[in-house]
């Protein structure tokens, strides 16, 4: 008897298809928004404006990266405190550089550690004490923001314009802002690699998809989530370092409102608000969309309240899109 080769049906790679669709959607949206903003403001496509836009994007991108990791971890994970962590970390760096005379580079390293400690406060209360992420991070949003104001009496701190530190925020390499090339791009590259090529990425998706299944597989879900909030705090503090190098001043309101943008970018990029699904490459594209939108609206002299409302609509639209994609996904 001649045996005929068995024919195997290849299951559609639905998740990959969905990610590809999201990428195409975001790319089209970037082009459309760029065209629209160039009509609203004749300055939008100027080289100086595009450079300033990418400098701003480097800061909010770091916050969005941390936010994406927290949301991917599941159990309603969210970090509303990232903007206040950035503000307080920037002030901490200013105190070290201006009041104590510490090298800006050493102050920057200490600031990242300080931001990780701020994030670990969130992580401890959420992962160890079992408190709701929304309540915890909303509380630290107010607490950290108030501390930044109290420590400076609402003023600004400096001490950064020495030892070549300004080059991190004000120079460019081959036309690309230094903070994009040496900070944002490596952080996203490392994050994408960790998500897709390491055991950390697999554990992240397991925890985000099902606590119980992850626990049965021997995963310490609480420890993982604690580390995610610590990571979010460290990335927000890194954003403070970039901001201080860019503006050469530490301001207590530097991160105000950035938490909404960070969440919008993560969700628009395809991160499932319930955790476990989504890719950081989509978040990078969503970052471009939100930066183009926000910066273009500022150039068009659209009021802050209107800008906030538009970002809110984008967030709702992104959540609806994620929900629609999830319903179409096969069980």
From TrEMBL:
It is found in: Cell membrane. It is a multi-pass membrane protein. Keywords: Cell inner membrane, Cell membrane, Membrane, Transmembrane, Transmembrane helix, Transport. One of its GO terms (molecular function) is transmembrane transporter activity. It holds the Pfam family BPD_transp_2. GO terms for cellular component: plasma membrane. InterPro entries: ABC_transp_permease. It comes from the Bacteria. This is Autoinducer 2 import system permease protein LsrD. It comes from Nonomuraea phyllanthi.
């Amino acid at each position: 008897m001649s045996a005929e080769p068995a024919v195997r049906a290849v299951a559609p790679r639905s998740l990959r298809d969905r990610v590809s669709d999201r990428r195409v959607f975001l790319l089209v949206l970037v082009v459309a928004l760029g065209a629209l903003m160039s009509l609203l403001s004749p300055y939008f496509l100027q080289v100086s404006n595009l450079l300033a836009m990418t400098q701003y994007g480097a800061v909010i991108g770091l916050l969005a990266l941390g936010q994406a990791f927290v949301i991917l971890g599941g159990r309603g994970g969210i970090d509303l405190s990232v903007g206040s962590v950035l503000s307080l970390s920037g002030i901490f760096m200013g105190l070290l550089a201006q009041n104590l005379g510490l090298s800006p580079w050493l102050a920057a390293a200490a600031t990242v550690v300080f931001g990780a400690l701020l994030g670990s406060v969130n992580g401890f209360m959420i992962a160890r004490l079992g408190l709701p992420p929304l309540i915890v991070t909303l509380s630290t949003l107010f607490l950290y923001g108030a501390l930044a104001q109290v420590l400076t009496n609402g003023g600004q701190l400096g001490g950064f314009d020495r030892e070549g530190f300004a080059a991190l925020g004000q120079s460019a390499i081959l036309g690309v802002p230094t903070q994009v090339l040496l900070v944002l791009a490596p952080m996203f590259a490392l994050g994408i690699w960790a998500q897709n090529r390491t055991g950390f990425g697999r554990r992240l998706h397991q925890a985000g998809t099902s606590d119980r299944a992850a626990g049965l597989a021997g995963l310490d879900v609480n420890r993982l989530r604690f580390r995610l909030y610590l990571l979010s705090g460290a990335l927000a503090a890194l954003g403070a370092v970039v901001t201080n190098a860019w503006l050469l001043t530490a301001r207590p309101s530097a991160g105000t409102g950035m938490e909404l943008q960070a969440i919008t970018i993560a969700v628009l990029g395809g991160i499932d608000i319930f955790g476990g699904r989504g890719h950081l490459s989509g978040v990078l594209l969503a970052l471009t969309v939100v930066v183009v939108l926000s910066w273009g609206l500022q150039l068009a002299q659209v009021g802050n309240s209107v800008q906030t409302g538009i970002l809110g609509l984008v967030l709702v639209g992104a959540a609806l899109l994620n929900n629609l994609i999830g319903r179409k996904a096969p069980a």
